[in-house]
Design a protein that fits this description.
Chain lengths: 308, 219
């Protein structure tokens, strides 16, 4: 009776009970996951072997966790319980089909990116696209869904987080690359080349994003009131930018840059109704320029951000 | 937390019980039996062998295959049963890992090769089995695949041939019938009663001084 009345003891027992229940759920999940993996090993070895080297076992485990959406280092108890309730094998088969469906999109997405890539020299972009050609035929959603059988060297202006794996990384990467291409397509090739040469004369050989300098200069032009399609900020333009932003807070600078990005998109012919993803992408880039612009204002070095 | 690659205890317990039931049922006719404690010991040895060889097994393991593959070996008795299976299990995982360097050997092939080597080259010694080169086991596997060790092959060929020719009676049945008929026609022991019995004759006549039968005429 005394124990039951003690609130600390009651809380401790409650916590113990919850922990035990979590451990039980976790153990059940792991048992289900192991059954999935036993079947995976059998399929992977064509029924010839029940064991496999540790390296391959880790790959199969990582793939199964990716397919089930479980972070192996920090699994979500709610998700684990849901998988146990459904049955790990059933959940795995269902999710594998979803991954396969995502992989079916990749080659179409790649084709679209390849057809829309502007003829700007970039060895990294060319190699990356070549490496992603026929991705689906090399991708193994059933066994190694978390892996990317391609060499992706070309950097995006907004990199895909490393936590995104497998076909989801590739599709997100290609989707973002497509947005960058759609923006670049709005500008004359020679003007884009001019901006990129101003960044570095040998830009084609560098691992350098092609979109970022062009979009930055477009935002700069909009901010300075220059011709956005011209992609060049003149001396008076730099002074106007400095005059409008000097002494303003980071938040005010960020808002000004985002508004300028929206104007640049308008002038580039990217309409809110059809090209919202591209506009959002450019606005996020402009927002990210805030610390650079504030630093450049402090050192009177705006040409370091919006190149001549 | 993170998932390690060790076998969850509840799965291991269930697998041990299932293996035990299957193995004991199959080996009963050979007078071999594992206790639950021995089966647990084999499961622990399996975990150690996997750790030692850097391998991982998500399923129930190969104890069942090893027991079924080795139970009719003439070198296996209840006294050495558990120890032999445990040692062979170690050899199995070591050889399995060794074989990964080139073409990995299938579990069934490796069990069959180990069994053949155990009965022949190793003569029932697990130490000798462990020292056998992988190439020898691969050679056994190749011969198993070629059918060299298949004692039934010739008979099966007869059967198949008979089936192709549409014989109503199986060839082996026909052989058995002929042998049985001959056996029935064979004469009994009294059939030779009046035959010349050289053995009795020798002792009846006796030996001479020089050891010749019936004595020497040369004096």
């Amino acid at each position: 009776m005394a124990d039951a009345a003690d609130p600390c003891e009651t809380a401790r027992r409650g916590a113990d009970k919850e922990l035990a229940s979590f451990s039980d759920g976790e153990a059940d999940f792991q048992a289900g996951l192991w059954r999935v993996l036993a079947k995976q090993v059998s399929l992977y070895t064509l029924g010839e072997s029940s064991s496999l080297p540790e390296y391959d076992a880790h790959r199969l485990l990582a793939s199964a966790c990716f397919v089930l959406g479980v972070d192996p280092d920090d699994p979500d108890p709610v998700l684990m319980r849901a998988i146990v309730a459904e049955g790990a094998e059933e959940a795995f088969e269902r999710e594998v089909r979803l991954v396969e469906r995502e992989a079916e999109r990749t080659d179409d997405l790649w084709r679209e990116v390849a057809f829309t890539t502007p003829l700007l020299e970039s060895v990294a972009l060319k190699d990356t696209l070549e490496s992603l050609r026929g991705f689906r035929s090399r991708y193994a959603p059933r066994f190694f869904a978390h892996e990317i059988p391609a060499d992706i060297d070309y950097p995006l202006a907004a990199p895909v987080p490393e936590t995104v794996q497998g076909v989801r990384y590739v599709n997100t990467y290609l989707g973002r690359l497509l947005l960058e291409n759609r923006f670049l397509q709005r500008f004359e090739l020679e003007r884009c080349k001019g901006v990129l040469r101003a960044v570095h004369p040998g830009y084609g050989e560098l691992i350098l994003n092609l979109f970022e300098p062009v979009a930055t200069n477009a935002v700069g032009c909009a901010l300075a009131g220059c011709d956005v399609r011209g992609l060049r900020v003149d001396d008076a333009g730099y002074e106007r930018i400095a005059a409008s932003l000097r002494g303003k807070s980071a938040r005010q600078v960020r808002v000004a840059l985002e508004n300028a990005a929206a104007r640049a998109c308008d002038e580039a012919g990217l309409r809110p109704s059809d090209d919202e993803p591209v506009r959002g992408y450019v606005e996020r880039l402009a927002s990210g320029l805030t610390p650079q612009v504030r630093n450049a204002l402090a050192h009177d070095a705006l040409t370091g951000v919006f190149v001549r | 937390m993170g998932f390690d690659l060790s076998i969850p205890p509840q799965l291991q317990g269930a697998a041990v019980r299932e293996d035990l039931a299957v193995c004991n049922e199959a080996t009963a006719k050979y007078g071999l039996r594992l206790t639950e404690q021995q089966a647990r010991g084999l499961a622990e040895r399996r975990s150690e062998a996997l750790r030692a060889t850097g391998r991982v097994e998500f399923g129930r393991g190969v104890v069942r295959e090893l027991v079924l593959g080795f139970c009719d070996s003439p070198y296996l008795s209840q006294e050495n049963y558990e120890e032999t299976i445990a040692d062979v299990q170690d050899v199995f995982y070591r050889r399995k890992e060794d074989s990964e360097a080139a073409e990995a050997m299938a579990d069934d092939d490796l069990v069959a090769a180990l069994r053949y080597a155990f009965d022949h080259e190793a003569a029932g010694s697990t130490d000798m089995l462990a020292d056998l080169p992988l190439a020898t086991l691969r050679a056994h596997v190749a011969r198993v695949h070629a059918g060299d060790y298949d004692e039934k092959t010739q008979n099966e060929e007869f059967e198949e041939e008979a089936a192709r020719e549409g014989a109503e009676e199986h060839v082996r049945d026909e052989f058995s019938r002929v042998l049985d008929d001959e056996r029935w026609e064979r004469p009994g022991n009294d059939y030779a009663d009046n035959f010349y019995n050289a053995y009795d004759e020798v002792y009846r006549i006796g030996f001479g001084d020089n050891g010749r039968i019936g004595g020497s005429s040369l004096g």
